[in-house]
Amino acid sequence: MTHVIELLRQFKAPPYWGIWLGVGLLWLLSKLPLKLRYRASEWLGIVLYALARSRRRLVLANLALAFPEKTPLERQAIAKAHFKSLGIQVFAEMTETWFGPYRSDQREDRLAVEFEGKEHLEAARAQNQGLIMLTPHFTHLEITGLLFSRLMHLHPIYRPHDHPLVDALILRGRTFQIGEHTTLPVSANDTRKMIKLLRQKQALGYLPDQRYRGKGHVTIPFFGQPAKSHTATSKLAALTQALVVPTFTERRFDPVRYPKQGWYYVVRFYPALDGFPSGDDAQDTQRLHTLYEHEIKKNPSQYLWVHNRWDLSKQQIAALLQRD
Q1: Helix axes 164-173, 17-30, angle to 10 degrees
Q2: DSSP element (H, E) containing 294
Q3: Pairwise CA distance, residues 95 & 173, whole Å
Q4: Residue 106 — very low, low, confident or very high, per pLDDT cuts 50/70/90?
Q5: Would you say the C-alpha torsion 213, 219, 223, 224 has a positive or negative sign?
Q6: Are 276 and 283 in contact (CB under 8 A)?
Q7: Burial level of 12, CB count in 10 A (0-12/13-18/19+)?
Q8: 3-state secondary structure of 265
Q9: Which domains are delineated in the chain?
């Protein structure tokens, strides 16, 4: 509670009270049994689907672009499952990461996880180079770093929030103890820090799949649609000789095998990308997009479709939905 008291002292003015109310609600939810939080989260996701009209429309428009071969009813089913997944992210997983035990090893009996391809991770670590653990934005991103901590020490990269209190809460929520190490998130704006860590043979948790309109962006197809994209993965790997290890997490439900919570997680490690970077940023980015698409198609409802990946206007969203 010490960190919460410190934040309360720093952000005690009336403009922050609404956020503190939400934080208090999440804290209360964190005291419920995790299994109950999972169940309640799904219902909250259904409510969000009904009430969050603009986000629902964006999700359906994104799905129309990504999966034109599916029927409107199939895409609607994915959208509903997506909002349930969002509910789990906020009310089960975020409450666990933000308000659960500070030490990672104190949570091991609370979250069930299976690892696939651990040999690929060990092969990459054996090369004694920095590691860029590459993963897209799935709805379980808040829990992913915690799961990684079972096997390795890494620094998650995060995008600073514009609101100072929210940013402080995110930073604290993604900081926890792993053995003798403390996992400290690194700002996506702090390129020097990222380069320094990689040159020190450390690992970064990196999520470069979202829309990027800044300097040096490239427009590369994503699910067949032009998408403004970041080339930082190629540049970081070139500057530091770090290995890029694609890593994907999936949330599954199996109450027979995991009766305690019902839900469990699968973390898949792939071999470090050979010949990456190639010297062609556009080609490298397309290669990453192909990897993302392959994994997203396995469980499309868990990708973060509420993000406006294709920078759609309200008019474009309306036009896409009118097709159906």
Answers
A1: 20
A2: helix 281-296
A3: 9
A4: low
A5: positive
A6: no
A7: exposed
A8: strand
A9: 101-323 (3.40.1130)
